[in-house]
From TrEMBL:
Ranges for domain Beta-lactamase-related: 10-332
Pfam families in the record: Beta-lactamase (PF00144)
Protein name in the entry: CubicO group peptidase (Beta-lactamase class C family)
InterPro entries: Beta-lactam-related, Beta-lactam/transpept-like, Diverse_Enzym_Activities
Amino acid sequence: MTFSPAHWQSRLDALRATHRVPGATLAVFTEGRIHELASGLLHRGTGVEATTDSVFQLGSIAKLYTATLVMQLAAAGELDLDAPVNDVLPEFSVADPDATKAITPRRLLSHTSGMTCDFTYDSGRGDDCLAAYVAAARNVALDCPPGAAVSYSSVGYNVLGRIVEVLTGRTWDQALKERLLAPLSLTRTMTLPEEALAFRTAMGHLPGDGPDPEPAPAWDMMPRSAGPYGRVLATAADVLRLAKLHLDGGSAPDGTQILGPRAVAEMQRWAVDVPDKWTVSADGWGLGWSLYDWNGIPGYGHDGASIGQYAFLRVVPGADLVVVLLTNGGAARPFYADLFRELLLDLGGVHMPPAFAPPARPPLVDMAPLVGTYRREGVVITVSVRPDGAPHLLYEFIDGMQDFSPPLSMDLVPLSDTVFAASGAGSSFSGDWMPVVFGTLVDGTPCCYTGMRCAPLAAR
């Protein structure tokens, strides 16, 4: 249907208010045109209004920028996606020497390297920050063996960022500007806070004492080294233009071929199934892209989150449709789900799946095969059965993550024999229920997925 700016402005305003999201910007490409809308406030403390030229933090959508740079290098013959990372970074290693040799750029791009997600290390503001980060991550334990499962890894994308630096002779920030932002004229996309000061910039908001979220204690808590996996800032329209590069087969609006069509297609090709189909709404993963199967209609995109800011990108290639939503707090994920459910149906014929929640009458499930202790780097998950027969999960942070949060005690409500909804750990981003999914590695080892991270069984 024809895009009606007045109608969608009304829906944006209404749904934003319903979900207590302070501010949001929306960019839609449909029928050959880009439409931009804004609603609410960038900062509840100052009252500055959100505008279409406002800049938000993109969180993990930054991974798409890094993946595009990596695929440029692969398309030019400068990088073999299936060779060990050690061929480019001899200093790279993980705790298992054999696993080190099995980690390739392709596995890093598709989150099948087994590398953990949550290794945190501030390597400073210098141009050597990524080199220092990769050095500090040496010998960090894997969540699972390479190729054994999909397990979301921000660390892996920092390794990819370092590969970009070595092969281009530029910092990751410089390579991004020269090889992607400048050719696409993305003048409102940046990586550093001092660059963002020149623009209207959104403040993240977190739950407060009242019904509305409050400004976060700090605007930006990410170190510079987080760039390749989570530190890009942009307007909604600039994010849309990056996605449109991929929708247009790697060609810029002026006809310049920035990424080859074969590389574009390879990024969108299904590389691995995602057992946890709810945390980031992904059915599968390509090389950088989350992949969706909306009842036979294919799509791709990505989600992102930083401190109180949440971003959502969806592409429906069959409808020549791109939708980007940037937000700064509140119940952002339910807001996205309600808005995109209407937008994608109206403009792309897509029926998005319902929100994740247990059924009114949960099935009876034999918990015996699932009870045990599961472990990944920094996290121990204990699955048990309460005396009253109710399934239960204890989520504990350990080692370098021990100060991240107190242990989380959650009841589990079954949706099926392997999929459960955890209560008591809801957030404004994920909603009231956290998906907990049980599966197996390729060798048959049981595992537990939370947050799209894989934790293999450690003990019964």
